[in-house]
Amino acid sequence: MDADIEEGFADYATLKQKKRKGKDISWQGQKDFEPDESITQHEKLQASHDAMFEALTEKRLVSTKGISKGVFDRDAQLVLVRAPRGNYFQSIGRSVKGTLTLYLEEACFLMNVGQLQIEDYEGNSISFRDLYVAVLNSADGWSSFERYQTYAYLKRLGYHVIRSDAILPISHNVNHHPLTWMFPITAIAIKYTISTVRSMIDRMKKMWHIGCRTKLLWVWQRDHTVHPLLPRIQSHFNYASIFSALRIIPSSQSPYVPSTRLHVIDYDVHKPLPTWKKTNPGQPTYRVSVCR
């Protein structure tokens, strides 16, 4: 496929015509669709637009030879596969008492790709919508919309995805002080204020060592009276008195301790390696925790 085809899009109007042997769907580049407000171009665009929606509404046809048959157990909210066919089951499902069993998200995925037909014990057909509603309602106590979307997305990418039983602690240390994990901005502001006050105290100490005595002597010589250094506080007439009144309150921040919160791992994700086996998957390539 050359660059022009990659930048263009399929002309769905050709799908309504009988396809000739060896002839692919025609692709129209950007130059053929430059707007010129002509009636001819409008008709072509409208025909392609209508054909696109007609193609999207076409019923998907799947050969019955490759479709597996399953029975939906409403009590256990599991699908029992009675006639497995195809390569999907090399990485999907598990054997329970000799019967291939599927979780809801696995059965939904196989139905969505046209590889599974499901009935109940009475022989009534189970549609994809019925099974999808069970997933949304978390009928098995585990499934959810977010988990199914995650599972289906990873499966379409080609990964082997299985439910995980792992519960892992958070690997990093978390400060449990309320100012840091509930109000991070407030904590930063407090730390900045403390550092500013400390720097001011250091500068005042330097002033005391360098010029406090000269300052006091100049004040006394000017009018033979000693004025308070802080006008609003009449009890401090020298820097030593001010420093003696200062108090540095140590931070009440608790030390860092390992968190007791746990990550619930929903899926173990494995790369589709040729040596991978469903019965012995080994360590997963990725562990996925679905946020809801």
Automatic annotation (TrEMBL):
<dbReference type="GO" id="GO:0000214">
    <property type="term" value="C:tRNA-intron endonuclease complex"/>
</dbReference>
<comment type="similarity">
    <text>Belongs to the SEN54 family.</text>
</comment>
<dbReference type="GO" id="GO:0000213">
    <property type="term" value="F:tRNA-intron lyase activity"/>
</dbReference>
<protein>
    <recommendedName>
        <fullName>tRNA-splicing endonuclease subunit Sen54 N-terminal domain-containing protein</fullName>
    </recommendedName>
</protein>
<feature type="domain" description="tRNA-splicing endonuclease subunit Sen54 N-terminal">
    <location>
        <begin position="53"/>
        <end position="118"/>
    </location>
</feature>
<dbReference type="InterPro" id="IPR024337">
    <property type="entry name" value="tRNA_splic_suSen54"/>
</dbReference>
<dbReference type="Pfam" id="PF12928">
    <property type="entry name" value="tRNA_int_end_N2"/>
</dbReference>
<dbReference type="GO" id="GO:0000379">
    <property type="term" value="P:tRNA-type intron splice site recognition and cleavage"/>
</dbReference>
<feature type="region of interest" description="Disordered">
    <location>
        <begin position="20"/>
        <end position="39"/>
    </location>
</feature>
<keyword id="KW-0819">tRNA processing</keyword>
<dbReference type="InterPro" id="IPR024336">
    <property type="entry name" value="tRNA_splic_suSen54_N"/>
</dbReference>
<dbReference type="InterPro" id="IPR036740">
    <property type="entry name" value="tRNA_intron_Endonuc_N_sf"/>
</dbReference>
